[in-house]
Write a structure and sequence with these properties.
Layout: H1 2-26, H2 29-56
Helix pairs in contact: 1-2
């Protein structure tokens, strides 16, 4: 399960980066904000998984 969560975190981060870049390209502030939000979600999920791994070992 942890590998799945880590993959999902990386996917959210990548999706956020693409959205943010697209928003910057077209000048869409909402898209930029959504991209940053997705990146933050991915970062939080990744941090949670790293914390779980630290206490697991």
């Amino acid at each position: 399960m942890a590998a799945n969560e880590k993959t999902q975190a990386k996917t959210e981060q990548a999706k956020g980066k693409v959205e943010e870049a697209a928003g910057r390209t077209v000048g869409n502030e909402r898209l930029i904000a959504e991209g940053r939000t997705d990146q933050a979600k991915g970062d939080a999920r990744e941090a949670k998984e790293k914390t779980k791994d630290t206490f697991k070992h």
